[in-house]
Amino acid sequence: MHRVLGFDRWVAQGGDWGSIVTARMALLNPPGLAAIHLNSAPLHARVVPKEMTDDEAAWLKAGAAKRASQAGYRIQQGTKPQKLAYGLTDSPVGLAAWILDKFQNLTVGGEPVPPPFPLDRLLTNVMLCWLGGINAANWLYISVVEEGLGLPRRQRVEVPTGFTLCPNDLGVPPPDAWLRRSFNMLHRAAAAQGGHFLAFEQPELFVSRLCAIDPVRFDKMAGPL
Predict the structure, then answer these.
(1) 34-91 residue pLDDT tens
(2) Model pLDDT for residues 21-35, shown as the tens digit of each residue
(3) pTM reported for the whole predicted model
(4) Domain boundaries of the chain, sorted by first residue
């Protein structure tokens, strides 16, 4: 950002895999990075605290229940990606079903209604995976099985961090205390609806939340906005 684009100060945003990339980048604290904003929170403390609050205990229980019912695709892609790729490469209908299931469950929470996206945009998303091949994308999930999604042990993101979390994301939104173990969290907002694809599903809300992150104020604050 500084050497190529000439920005002395900048903010990074990440969701889904981007939240992992953004958080890992913030651990390096590159020059000029004033704050980060995440709309997914898969990164949490690896060690369960000995004294959890009731909210944290309830969150862990709810998260385990959601993973048990929704994380089958991740286990399959993370353990047998090559075998899965043969079927998804052979059948465009199979590939569409595999992908669109996530657009359904991670936006409207499994309700029996269509996902809130125009059909042509969904088909465009599927077509990109069809033309490029799904195999390489599947192999990414092996890292989840082998290394997990957490930050490196005993490391914490000290760059000022803001969150916008949705009710129907991959995981249940963590309590504030849990996030603060891994991040210098100075701001958190909760979306009333929506899920994993916030920028795609609710672009106006996404932009408004991102624009609300003021790095100058972050630098001077010791608490939530």
Answers:
(1) 999 999 986 555 556 677 888 888 988 888 888 888 888 888 888 888 888 899 999 9
(2) 999 999 999 989 999
(3) 0.85
(4) 10-67+149-220, 68-145
Locus of tokens 């958190």 = 188
Return phi, psi of residue 192, to 5°.
-70, -25
CA distance 111 to 224: 33
Longest dimension (CA), the chain: 55
Hey, how many other C-beta atoms are within 10 angstroms of the C-beta on 153?
8
Residue with tokens 């979306």: 191
CA dist 159 → 120, 177, 194 (Å): 39, 17, 27
Name the superfamily (CATH) of residues 10-67+149-220.
Alpha/Beta hydrolase fold, catalytic domain (3.40.50.1820)
Angle at 148 between CA 82 and CA 55, to 5 degrees: 135
- Contacts (Cβ under 8 Å, ≥6 apart) of 68: none
